[in-house]
Each structure stands twice: as C-alpha cells, then as structure tokens.
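F.,

This is the one I mentioned.
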C-alpha cells in the first residue's frame, strides 16, 4: 500500500474515525483504525456497536489495507507538520509515515483482521439539512437517560409522520421534543443510541448540506459529507409521548427566556445536589420569585412574566430547568402548568417546534 495525501485532511479523517474506536478490547484490531487504499482512501473505526468511516482525497500509488493503533496514529497525525503525508506498508505489515522531515516506522495489523460491519439492507431512507439536525439533537440529547434499567430510554426516538421529523428523549423525569419538516413520505420510528447521537452531532457541519439516513430493522447508516456512521438501533417500547404534548394546560404565561435563565444561574451556585432540595418558583401578580434554601445557604431572585395565571409555588431541579432554557432558541416562550404537582411545560409561543416537560418536586 502506498499513498500521499494532505496533512490537514489526513488528520481530520483519523480524528473522526478514532471516535468509534474501543480504547480497550480483547481484539487488538478493534483498538486500531483500518486504513484502506482502494478506489478511494478511507479510515474506519469500529467498536462492534458504532462504526465511523471517513474518506479523503489522496494520490494512491498502490492499493492495500493496514490497521494501525488509533491512539498512536491520532497522536502522530496531530503532531505532523503541514504538507504532504506519504504512507506505505509492505508485506510484513511494516508501515512508514513521512511528512516533511518527520519519519515514523510502525508495525501494523493485517487489514483482513478488521471485523466487518453488518451490511445494511435499507428499506427506508430520508435526508435533512445538517444544521437543522444538529440543532434538534442539541435540543433533546440532554434528557436522554443514563440509567440502563430501560435501555430504550438511553437513546433518542426519531419519529417520522406526515412529513415531520420529531426527536424525542426522556429520562422519566423530563421529556424533550423537537420537530421539523422533513423530505420523507413514509411513516416510521426508530431509536438511536445516545453515544451515536453525540458522534453525529460532532460530525455535522453548520451548513445546509444534507445528512442522509438509510435504515434497516436493527441498524442505520448516516452519511454526512465524507463520513459514514454505522450504528445499531435500540429495541423496546418507547414512551407514548403524544398525550403529554397534546394535554391542555390550564395556566400559560409568557416569559423572557434570557431573563429567567439569568435568574436561575444566579441562584444555582448555592444549590447542593446532595441535599436534593428543590428550586422554588412562585408565580403571582406578574412576578416569578425564585428561592433556594438549605441548611448551609439560601438565595433568591425574581423576574417577570406576562399573562394571567393562578398563584402557584412549585419546586423543581435547577439543572433540569436550565437544560431546557438553554435549548430554547427564542427570546420568549410559554411557561405552562396545571397544578402544583403536575409537570411544568416550556413550549414555543407561536408554534410547536419544541416542547419541554419537567417533573416537579414535592415541597415540604
């Protein structure tokens, strides 16, 4: 195998592929990146659950493949000087990397030892603008469950119906829903693991370039520019979220997202997570009063709202509230509730692009 490519593209491809590599594995090949010089130059990382393949432009003089340790290759790629990178391997799996005055001689693993990813027999597909998908992921990923008790909640539901894509996540204490039109005539749903979603978000560019999904029963391929992400899908019955989103709210007021965010952030330094004391919000006469009290500290702040509602005081997690507020792109939104014990809802004022439901905590 012999090829030459630009250092910047080489470094980016190695860095991206390395995100799917297992740091420790009983299979040495899974700790490496598969470099394949064929019709194109590709770099592949795979941990048997998530796979990322990246391609870059190269002048290929001799076809072949080799596996190099991902940690070592990533470090070398970062340290190389700018310019052309020349890589070659021989029949004994000895690899030479040249760039400028730098030279590395490594021992690789035969490419044939790299596990093959399952073939995707796609029966469903759709595409969406990369920047739109990136915003939808950032608007839901924070409420994915980290508890393996119900594995399906450790992922995000993609629900496609009537030309609309909804991303839905829950950890049983909160529910996040983002929706956007999508170019797809079919109706289907699938759950993408949270780890996969984080890698997709890192790779997605802030542009209108399309992210293309190809789906099979248990796997998915996501094509983003020169990168292809392979992932298994999560099985199980996801939460029936539709009733929660459609439920009428007896009280709805308009709040300034930035002002309420600033108030919560000012109170948050004294919050002690170990004590599990709630942040209190009291809505009355156009004012939201925030208070937090513990055995070691207390704090208070306030901001306003517009509209009418019943006077009420509720308690909730300051972190959960901040996560939702930080995800809202608008200056104003609706804050809704029914009773002191029913969940609080934050939703778009003049639309349905996002919906955040937060379970309330008992007040002593």
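My design for it:
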């Amino acid at each position: 195998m012999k090829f030459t490519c630009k250092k910047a593209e080489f470094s980016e491809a190695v860095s991206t592929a390395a995100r799917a590599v297992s740091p420790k594995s009983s299979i040495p090949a899974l700790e490496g990146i598969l470099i394949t010089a064929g019709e194109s130059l590709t770099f592949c990382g795979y941990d048997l659950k998530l796979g990322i393949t990246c391609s870059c432009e190269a002048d290929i003089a001799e076809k072949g493949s080799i596996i190099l340790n991902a940690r070592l290759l990533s470090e070398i790629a970062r340290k190389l000087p700018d310019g052309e990178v020349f890589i070659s391997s021989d029949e004994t799996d000895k690899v030479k990397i040249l760039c400028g005055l730098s030279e590395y001689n490594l021992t690789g693993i035969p490419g044939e030892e790299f596990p093959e990813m399952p073939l995707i027999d796609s029966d469903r597909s759709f595409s969406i603008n990369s920047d739109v998908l990136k915003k939808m992921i950032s608007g839901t990923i924070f409420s994915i469950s980290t508890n393996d008790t119900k594995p399906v909640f450790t992922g995000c539901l993609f629900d496609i119906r009537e030309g609309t894509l909804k991303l839905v996540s829950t950890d049983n204490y909160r529910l996040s829903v983002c929706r956007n039109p999508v170019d797809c005539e079919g109706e289907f749903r699938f759950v993408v693991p949270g780890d996969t979603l984080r890698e997709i978000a890192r790779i997605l560019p802030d542009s209108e370039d399309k992210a293309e999904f190809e789906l099979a029963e248990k796997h998915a391929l996501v094509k983003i520019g020169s990168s292809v992400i392979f992932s298994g899908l999560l099985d199980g019955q996801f939460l029936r979220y539709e009733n929660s989103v459609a439920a009428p709210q007896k009280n709805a007021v308009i709040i300034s997202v930035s002002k309420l965010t600033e108030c919560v952030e000012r109170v948050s330094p004294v919050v002690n997570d170990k004590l599990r004391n709630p942040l209190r919000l009291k809505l009355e006469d156009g004012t939201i009063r925030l208070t937090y009290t513990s055995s070691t500290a207390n704090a208070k702040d306030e901001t306003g709202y517009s509209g009418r509602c019943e006077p009420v005081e509720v308690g909730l997690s300051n972190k959960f509230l901040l996560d939702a507020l930080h995800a809202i792109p608008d200056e104003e939104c609706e804050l809704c509730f029914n009773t002191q014990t029913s969940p609080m809802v934050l939703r778009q004022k003049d639309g349905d692009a996002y919906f955040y439901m937060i379970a309330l905590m008992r007040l002593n």
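The first helix runs from residue 7 to 18.

Talk soon.
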